[in-house]
Design brief:
The chain is built from no helices and 23 strands. The chain is mainly beta. It has two domains: about 170 residues, no CATH class; about 110 residues, Immunoglobulin-like, CATH 2.60.40.1260. Strands 2, 3, 5, 9, 10, 11 and 13 form a seven-stranded antiparallel β-sheet that branches. It is globular and about 60 Å long.
């Protein structure tokens, strides 16, 4: 385990909006206010524990200041962040990321601005104990939940933690992160799901891999062409389809996961267990 200090600055924006200010600082703003202030981003870091086994940590917190501004010449653009990480040896390493910003209209059925991170691996690396690592962002944490996109409601300053791992370069690392084994849908529990993430720095082809718990009718086989990009999260639902999570479903009219506890297992095409996640009463069972 290593304690690191993080901070960051916004280094570039792919357009030249009116009122742009704060580049190369931790608070960049743009736009002509149509209300209480400009739109923009803040980044705040902190001191966190970082492990080399793929354990997720908070790289920092993004605050999107989503206040109404006059129409922009271009509603979608890129905003670049340089995250500074100071390790215990006092050596500083910079890791850069590019965020896709969607400045949506302030009216309509979905007025929230959308912040996305299509490429989640830093191009910069750090060598620790003769092994090369990169930072991989695996999601945005909002309201205690890790999501794939940061939705930012209008007329507010909205926060999201950047959840990341320090991962070996050139390798995928596929893990089960959670099992929702008690759904809210009565009887069928159609909203149960298993979440899987690639915590590595390389794509993972999981075509033909099997998710299950070694019980009849509980296996899901990933279809051909299933590739998880670095940092990508997907969910396999019992009987719902959610395109934002990959669209995977068992298509089962009855619950899949035992409410009393069990172990979800992900096996590769050779039958080897790539990841196992125990939950409920089975969580403490070795």
């Amino acid at each position: 385990m290593s304690k690191v200090d993080t901070s960051g600055v916004w280094t570039a924006i792919s357009v030249s909006p009116p009122g742009l200010e704060g580049l190369t600082t931790d608070n960049v703003k743009w736009g002509v206010p149509a209300g209480s202030g400009k739109s923009g981003y803040m980044f705040s870091g902190g001191t966190v524990d970082v492990l080399l086994d793929g354990t997720e940590f908070t790289l920092g917190t993004i605050t999107h200041q989503n206040f109404p501004i006059q129409a922009m010449p271009q509603s979608q653009f890129w905003v670049d962040l340089a995250a500074h990480v100071v390790f215990e040896d006092q050596v500083t390493h910079d890791f850069s990321f590019r965020f896709q910003h969607n400045e949506t209209p302030n009216v309509g059925p979905n007025p929230e601005d959308i912040v996305d991170l299509p490429t989640r691996v830093s191009p910069e690396t750090v060598t620790i104990d003769n092994t090369e690592y990169a930072v991989v962002i695996t999601g945005f944490k909002q309201g205690g939940q890790i999501v794939t996109r940061f939705l930012s409601p209008e007329n507010a300053a909205n926060n999201a933690d950047l959840v990341a791992v320090l991962a070996r370069t050139g390798q995928p690392d596929v893990h089960i992160t959670t099992v929702r084994f008690k759904g809210d849908v009565k009887r069928t529990q159609a909203d149960e799901f298993v979440e899987v993430v690639n915590r590595g720095t390389a794509p993972a082809d999981i075509s033909g891999w099997v998710l299950g718990a070694d019980d009849a009718g509980q296996n899901f086989t990933f279809p051909p062409g299933t590739v998880l990009l670095p940092g990508q999260r997907i969910r396999i639902y019992t009987n719902q389809i959610h395109a934002e999570w990959g669209g995977y479903t068992y298509g089962s009219g009855r619950p899949i996961w035992n409410d009393r506890g069990d172990a979800a297992k992900l096996r590769d095409t050779d039958g080897n267990i790539a990841s196992e996640y125990r939950y409920g009463s089975a969580a403490a069972t070795p």
